[in-house]
Write a structure and sequence with these properties.
Elements: H1 3-16, H2 23-30, H3 47-60, H4 70-89, H5 99-112, E1 126-127, H6 131-138, H7 143-152, E2 157-159, E3 182-184, H8 186-190, H9 192-249
Antiparallel strand pairs: 1-3, 2-3
Length: 250
């Protein structure tokens, strides 16, 4: 009996005995492994560094389905937008990312990459609008400059970028959105845990360095005002007492 025949006989007998199936048959049942996460935001001036970052993000995004769910995307989008909006008003002090970057990111995420399902899909939310639309909708008068700034901080990566640099959304028929051209906010999906922790850290620092001192200042100011009012009241009572004594003596 040949090796192939032996293997075939073993598989048949295993099935009859209820034995373990071949490894290949088990793989589809395992589901996706847990998606990897990005753990920092880094400024990348060198185009080669940005290209390596984009390749890494694209590989990590394979942990997402080609097309996610509307509900999961909506929840993730709301969560991340809340964090980014906070950073746009008050940038984090523990990392060096300028406020204008957070503002650009919020404008793009809130008003352009607004399809909820993309926030749970492998392609990620897309900036696929034309320069005119970006100018009209979010006031980007030099869209390429805004996009470059986001790319330098690794917050967006190219998505099927056309050779002439034009951006267009395409249709929803393509499962992987390969008929769209533009920039993807996919890094945001991989930064979700990092940004959540960063927001918690910044909130704790604000409470320690801003909120608590302000509360102490208000408390001491209130105590000072109360003390001053009591002194003035005592002085008025004393003056009234002297005035009464003077009248009775007269």
């Amino acid at each position: 009996m040949t090796i192939v025949q032996n293997q075939a006989a073993w598989e048949v007998n295993s099935r009859r005995r209820g034995g373990p199936a071949a490894i290949g048959a088990c793989l589809p049942k395992l589901g996706m492994l847990e998606t990897e996460q990005l753990t920092m935001i880094t400024f990348m001036e060198d185009p080669a560094d940005r290209a390596r970052h984009a390749a890494r993000v694209s590989k990590m995004m394979r942990g997402f389905e080609h097309t996610g769910t509307e509900n999961a995307g909506r929840q993730r989008r709301r969560k991340l937008l809340d964090i980014i909006e906070t950073f746009a008003r008050m940038p984090p002090v523990t990392i060096e990312v300028p406020r204008i970057v957070w503002r650009d990111l919020y404008d793009a995420a809130a008003s352009i990459a607004a399809m909820n399902i993309d926030w749970d899909s492998r392609c990620g939310p897309l900036i696929a609008a034309s320069n005119d639309h970006l100018k009209c909708r979010i006031g980007w008068t030099a869209a390429r400059k805004n996009i470059r700034r986001l790319a330098e901080y690794g917050l967006i990566i190219p998505h099927c970028l056309a050779g002439n640099g034009k951006r267009f959304l395409g249709s929803r028929d393509s499962e992987d959105r390969s008929d769209a051209s533009g920039w993807s906010l996919a890094p945001l999906l991989l930064l979700e845990d990092y940004l959540t922790q960063l927001a918690a850290t910044e909130k704790a620092l604000a409470a320690q360095n801003l909120i608590l001192p302000n509360q102490i200042r208000r408390a001491t100011s209130s105590a000072y005002r109360n003390g001053t009012e009591n002194l003035h009241k005592a002085a008025r009572l004393k003056a009234a007492g002297h005035s009464g004594m003077a009248k009775s003596g007269g």
